[in-house]
């Protein structure tokens, strides 16, 4: 069993264009999503060719891996960095490519039942409500047996930022991601960079050496694959 990319057609590109929101900000290329939507008739064919070349060769255009980070003040003193929330914005064309890869990979994972049943985040037809319902069912079942249920709630701090690229790629091979597909994800994770946009000016680019890409479509899916085996280390407990 192995994951293989499916060639992209103009129809796929047009469908992803329709999912873009006009209100979203432009990335480092300064091309607003609305421009792509309005020019879809002209752009969809060459963009499909570029994305297909990327999927076949495992190489992603370097500018598509540059994020523009906008610091948004939350509350408190404006001179305290901890009081800002970074908003990471990728080029709209990057999001189109990522949505295509995301849909293909998610479909492969779900059809082959490769994602842990305990994982409810970032999956179709899953929700926090369903997770809570299953948890309450477990508690009630234990009560009927005269048992107590102990729970530990864990919040991972800056979880997306701490993912090791090499460890993630090693785990991807366990899901059947090999050959050019693995090369593509390797290229996707490495040699990324970002710059800060503040008060109309852009900083110099600096490299991102760890974590799944913030503001990306693929980031959340890659993260749940990274932690997919956490259940294997629990002997007499269940994780939700």
From TrEMBL:
Transmembrane segments: none annotated. InterPro entries: DNA/RNA_pol_sf, RT_dom. Pfam families: RVT_1. This is Uncharacterized protein. It comes from Paramuricea clavata.
